[in-house]
């Protein structure tokens, strides 16, 4: 965050930063629900910059040259507004060129990289599938941040802050142990369980909330 703040303040006053950096490119990667999108919203709010959001699929066109045009327009809009350009699900747009079967698949990646190189501002791309992204494009990102599943401390923090008011009582020692047994939990899982139970007037037991979290993990991983 401090790097982004310094760059944003620096480039506001100069065509390129004092250190010769024209743009700051950030790649967020990791499983769904781990907080990549929420982090970008937080980053924009902290820097006081507008956020221009595009999904990778938003920039794909069925017409010849259409994708390249949409890519140019997205970068142009972000630079004009001096905002953060956020490309979500970027792997669908800048996938590995060595695996391409059609010329236009290579052309669209080349177009993206050219605009990325010339962009004056902050670009953030997010993907759940970093391995599918073009290897040359990955090297162009100044910063690469991995978002992973919650550790034990994170599980406790998110339960208390997101679900605590639904249960109404602190986690007991046994409940805490049961929560920590749950694997592959993400912030998104806690959000879903909160939304599911938010309008129920009576208090819900911590045991039930933990059970619902486990079921959510099974559902998203297709575990029976």
What keyword list fits this structure?
single chain, 224 residues, alpha/beta, five-stranded parallel sheet, 5 strands, 50% helix, elongated
What does this entry look like structurally?
- Helix 3 runs parallel beside helix 4 (103-118), helix 6 packs parallel to helix 8 and helix 8 packs across helix 9.
- It contains nine helices and five strands; from the N terminus they run αβαβαβαβαβαααα.
- It has 224 residues and is α/β, with parallel strands linked by helices.
- Helix content is 50%, strand content 12%.
- The protein is elongated.
- It has a five-stranded parallel β-sheet, with helices on both faces.
Topology:
Layout: H1 2-13, E1 24-29, H2 36-47, E2 51-55, H3 66-80, E3 84-88, H4 103-118, E4 122-127, H5 135-139, E5 143-146, H6 152-167, H7 173-181, H8 187-197, H9 206-220
Low-confidence runs: none
Task: Classify the beta-strand content into a percent band.
Answer: 5-15%
Task: Note the total helix count.
Answer: 9
Characterize the overall form: elongated
Distance from N terminus to C terminus (CA atoms, Å) equals 40 Å
Q: Which structural class is indicated by helix and strand composition?
A: alpha/beta
Largest sheet: 5 strands, parallel
Mean pLDDT: 89
CA radius of gyration = 21 Å
Q: Which series of helices and strands comes N to C?
A: HEHEHEHEHEHHHH
Numbering strands along the chain, what is their spatial order in the largest sheet?
Answer: 2-3-4-1-5
Overall strand count: 5
Percent in helix: 40-55%
Short description:
With 224 residues, the chain is an alpha/beta fold. Helices cover 50% and strands 12% of the residues. It has nine helices and five strands.
